[in-house]
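Exam prep: given the inputs below (a chain plus uridine-diphosphate-N-acetylglucosamine), describe the expected output before reading on.
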Amino acid sequence: MDRIVIEGGNRLIGEVKISGAKNAALPLMAASILTEENNTLHNVPDLKDIDTFKKLLLHLGAAIEGGKNTIRICTKDIKNYEAPYELVKTMRASVLVLGPLLARFKKVKVSLPGGCAIGARPINLHLAALEKMGAEVTIEHGYVTASAGRLKGTKIYFDIPTVTGTENIMMAACLADGRTILENAACEPEVVELANMLNKMGACIEDAGTDVITIEGVKGLKAAEYTIMPDRIEAGTFMVAAGITQGNILIKDCPLQHLDALTLKLKEVGVEIKSENSGVRVIGNYPVGSVDIKTLPHPGFPTDMQAQIMAMMSIASGLSVITENVFENRFMHVAELRRMGADIKIEGKSAIVRGRPFLSGAPVMATDLRASASLILAGIAAHGITEVSRVYHLDRGYERIDEKMKKLGANIKKVKA
Ligand code: UD1
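Solution:
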């Protein structure tokens, strides 16, 4: 198994360019299923999760042309309506084909994702919404099967604001009969990105980015060309990298407008963040202050940044309480950070982090995507050598993070198995 080996202690200084957003690219690829015409996407990140979604589209019968960052998706010849377990188990976002396949082909079969390292993550809200729109949904042998005539627009209330749930139903509602209103919808920027793309394809979606989204169904959608926004979580990870190493990083293509909660918290602990003509400059200072954080749906503090900020609070000058409100089991990185000397106690949904003067390098194991990033950050700041194993999680969501960190001055290398 590949590992990442880091000798910590270097300040990160220089420039880094942020790649396209994984969590925007995946639903935009799924949206291509809604039209017979060919969609073109630019700034697609070169990631394992994108490869998995391409595999899924090919499995359905789509054709994909293009290179690493620009792809053209042709779904005219789709003749298979099933997302198999092998693909869904490697990437939960595969469930994003549920809404579009059902809307266009009136039937779909998708493997139930099952739990994962950060929680149970059911899709009950996706399914209840589709049922409300007239679909017949059954669960058998680990698969969800849904069929419908033309879906019917209706009012849907999500008990929890679910990101992929909102995206799935928004896509399905584009081809439904009449008006669909999504209440308590997710407000994440990736939802807005999908709505913008769908509107370019001829859909009629209003107020994406608020918690009430209205979709007026249309007869059909046409092709669109779209450039995917930069990844806010990748950008946030590099902001923390500057903070944790007292570095000075110019982040190019940094979607600062989507990072308010993180920016405010970083400023509170003494990190300087300023917009310049060519990007956002982030300067870390000593000592790192401490701050309490509660993860919440957007515009709250993103759960996808919780593990990274915890690495930084491990070397802060005081005590921080980090509360995880979105997923029930997202503290798998705590035990690994403890192996590096962090003083962290878990009490229910909260991690109480008592900052230490330094972390010490150790062999650690990545448990999920963002936990991997947290361990890389901890390793870069730590004294001595850290070896992070199971780094395949990183390739799912960060485009060449080791190379980008190295260019900024980190002593980091990927060691092939
Ligand atoms: C998306 C992101 C992920 C991020 C998460 C929260 C993608 C591909 N992934 O995941 O990176 O961490 O949003 O910002 O965009 N829930 C239910 N029933 C459902 C659906 C969700 O109970 O039917 C619960 C989940 O278990 C979780 C909460 O709702 O506790 C939010 O999950 P959700 O927003 O759906 O996360 P994802 O869309 O899977």
